[in-house]
């Protein structure tokens, strides 16, 4: 059974994938953006340890895309994270007891509410202070006790989000 636990965890991790919605200013010249920084008064909604993991993953992914972290940057990144309970599905099993004209029945819900995390990525032009690109990621927030697993999950989220930056020309 202990050998099956890592396989089960991996299946849960894969089945609870990250979904991302993108929006951007269609007239933006994305080629002018080479460097980035972070808003100084950002409230990420993450713990200090998770914030450090998240920003390490984001810095690594931005570097792979050719962007540099700089105090005098072309754009500024703001991150906001929140967790919420996803409504329980309406699936239930009915159990009834009765006889000859009367009875009672009870619906027993199947499944459980799941904790979800949403992270909003806002990219703002440093010169005009205008939002030019936004991504909103959603994922099941499975509690993880292991720092390595938490770090890996943030890397997965950041990688998935940055697949859409800069947007592909049509």
Structure, described:
By secondary structure, this protein is α/β, with parallel strands linked by helices. It has one domain: Double Stranded RNA Binding Domain. The chain has helices at residues 4-15, 48-64, 147-162, and strands spanning 19-24, 35-38, 68-69, 75-86, 92-99, 102-109, 114-125, 131-140. The strands form two sheets. It has a six-stranded mixed sheet with strand order 1-8-7-4-2-3, covered by helices on one side. A two-stranded antiparallel ribbon has the order 5-6. Strand 2 (35-38), helix 2 and strand 3 (68-69) form a beta-alpha-beta unit. Helix 2 packs across helix 3. The model is unreliable at 4-15 (pLDDT under 50).
CATH class group: Alpha Beta
* Low-confidence blocks of residues: 4-15
Instruction: Output the helix-strand order.
Output: HEEHEEEEEEH
Stated plainly, the CATH topology is called Double Stranded RNA Binding Domain
Task: Report the biggest beta sheet as strand number plus sense, adding barrel if it closes.
Answer: 6 strands, mixed
Q: Strand portion, in percent?
A: 35-45%
SSE class:
alpha/beta
Number of structurally distinct domains: 1
Number of strands: 8
Keywords:
two-stranded antiparallel sheet; Double Stranded RNA Binding Domain; six-stranded mixed sheet; 8 strands; 170 residues
């Amino acid at each position: 059974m202990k050998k099956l636990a890592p396989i089960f965890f991996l299946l849960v991790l894969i089945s609870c994938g990250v979904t991302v919605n993108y929006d951007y200013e269609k007239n933006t010249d994305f080629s002018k953006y080479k460097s980035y920084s972070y808003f100084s008064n950002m409230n990420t909604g993450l713990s200090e340890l998770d914030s450090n993991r998240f920003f390490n993953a984001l810095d690594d992914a931005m570097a792979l895309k050719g962007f540099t972290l700089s105090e005098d940057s072309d754009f500024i990144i703001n991150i906001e994270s929140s967790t919420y309970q996803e409504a329980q599905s309406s699936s239930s099993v009915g159990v009834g007891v009765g006889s000859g004209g009367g009875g009672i029945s009870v619906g027993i819900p199947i499944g459980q509410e799941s904790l979800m995390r949403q992270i909003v990525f806002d990219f703002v032009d440093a010169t005009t202070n205008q939002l030019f690109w936004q991504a909103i990621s959603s994922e099941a927030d499975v509690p993880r006790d292991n720092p390595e697993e938490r770090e890996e999950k943030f890397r997965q989220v950041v990688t998935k989000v940055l697949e859409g930056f800069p947007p592909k020309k049509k």
